[in-house]
Amino acid sequence: MVAVALHAVNASNIITIKGTKFFDSVTKDQFFINGVAYQPRTLAGAMTDPLARPNDCRRDFALMKELGLNTVRVYQVDPYQNHDECMRALEETGIYLILDLSSSESSIVRNNPQYDINIWSKVRNTVDAFKGYSNTLGFIVGNEVTNDSKTTPASAYVKALLRDTKAYIRSSAPRLIPVGYANNDDPEIRLQVQAYFNCGPNEERADFFGINLYEWCGDNTTYQTSGYVDRTADIASYSIPVFLSEYGCNVVSPRAFHEVKSIFGLDMTSTWSGGIVYEWSQQENNYGLVQINTDNSVTLLPDFQALKGAMSSIHPAGVNMDLYYEQRPHSACPAITATWEPSANLPLHPSSETCDCMMSSLVCVASEQALSTSDKLGKEFDTLCSMTNCEHIDTDSKTGVHGKYSFCSPTQKLAFLYNQYYSSTGQSQPSACHFNGMAKLSTPARLSDEGCAAPQGIQTKSFTKRAAPHASDAVSHQEKPALGLTAIAALAAFI
């Protein structure tokens, strides 16, 4: 074991995975994530893209360097903004990025999960915006989506998104960028979630796993009494890197961060790959390290000073990549039970070409009225599914049966049902394509939808590793909803 330079890293060096650990691909030193959750909001609590505000980035990243941090986790960005300056500022201060791919307006909803072309388009655009930066450490496809035994079916949709994101990176990125999931550590299903995202073929398995852990609370808590020792035992035989994707209980405030000594010390470094403290800026939930003032200045809060003190004495011992050979088997998929319901047969890859092809065959489609009244579509689906067969648009992660158009947009699926019902009447009554103005007749470009359901999957390339450009060389990219239940109840839209 060798001491790792945790506080001073060259963020232009790509971080890679070997076995259960992260490594600097150039120095071959083991890399421990020492990070902070970074998602400043407006005074009204609205989300902004923190990596599209260069002045704020330079201000904040300099302070993070003072803390000795090497990673930020960002939960939401706007892929159509320019991120070059902030990514360059991260690189210059030795900091890597772990980026969540979902957003408040485009994500898999735990209580009514769907994975469609709109979600996939947003995720793909976000990957495109950040895949060229050498200090993009990894992507997270979901954060606490399944958070109890009642929402386990949602995990199948997240895993399908993970599968497609990995395939898309392999097909389009200059290098392999790890893709993972962050879990809320619900005691009833924590082991099933861990196993589910690490089972099946490699194309479907997570590259890393994050756990949002808030068990270490109060000044008198220890590694043994906090539950950290038990969580370490849970992942002792896990085959991919695991880190604390959020930590820092604030039951007692200001926080003392006694857990830092264990996270980056002998208690945990042989099993864990570091952690990300929650969070950078002060919000109503009182987790902030700093207060961002109305004049855009920053006030350091007691938690900042406490974390700085805790970080100053840590020197984790790691291994050299070339001397590390451990390889563990991946997990077996969890059994289907009353508290764990998702099938291993994942939802289909969303194909806009398939949906467009289907739409071009329809005689009866959704009208402009339907497009402008999205809040009423749920009732419209209920009505139509009582009148015609919905199997081609339905998706059921419990049975693993997914209709050939289950990934199309809501209005496209609605149009398919309108047309199916209209066709069942023999197309002799124009009134059968009305539905109180929600449907209208159209002239199709195809005689039928035969052949529209294309083969599934993303065509991937034979991959040869090559260096990614540094953030300083990147081309401009113009073109909890899930911060964690402990932290944030909901996200607002971008301003």
From TrEMBL:
InterPro entries: GH (IPR017853), Glucanosyltransferase (IPR004886), X8 (IPR012946). Its EC number is 2.4.1.-. The keyword Transmembrane does not apply. Residues 362-454 form the X8 domain. It comes from the Eukaryota. It is found in: Cell envelope; Cell membrane; Membrane. This is 1,3-beta-glucanosyltransferase.
